[in-house]
Amino acid sequence: xxxxxxxxTDGLLLLIDIAWESTDAEPDPxxxxxxxxxxxxxxxxxxxxxxxxxxxxxxxxxxxxxxxxLRAAARGESADELPVLLRDAVxxxxxxxxxxxxxxxxxxxxxxxxxxxxxxxxxxxxxxGWLRVDVRWLAEALPERxxxxxxxxxxxxxxxxxxxxxxxxxxxxPAG
Length: 176
Prior knowledge:
Elements: E1 11-16, E2 34-41, E3 44-45, E4 49-50, H1 65-74, H2 82-87, E5 91-95, E6 103-105, E7 111-116, E8 129-133, H3 135-141, E9 148-151, E10 159-161, H4 163-171
Parallel strand pairs: 7-9
Antiparallel strand pairs: 1-2, 2-3, 2-4, 5-7, 5-8, 6-7, 9-10
Helix pairs in contact: 3-4
């Protein structure tokens, strides 16, 4: 007796720019149309990995799943998915020449760590470099009080996230 082969459970789940369309000449998206991907191992989706060479099809195109939710929130729509998306996001934290985390003012003036959710959000931030971190690292790096997090400062939908919210999101994030 033979059994059917095991289904493929490893690979990448791609997030493609909504404007890209398959054609006979180009059945697969070019790398520049891929926002990023979730690695899948043993059928379990990992954290979203943004594509640094993604080229948005329009200024309204989000650069990653968190950005899409932030833009929806800016339009008055629900941001309920934000905690789940931040739990598995790869974040960029702005640092100075010595590697120290940069703190700047959020749009509402509150001192905040400068964090991006994709490389395309980094241009408006004057930083010497960027650390790739997860939400758990970010939560542990925040001081006890006085400093929040601003996501995608200078972008079309920057959002300040209070430190206590970042810590609560991190508390249920998987260890990574």
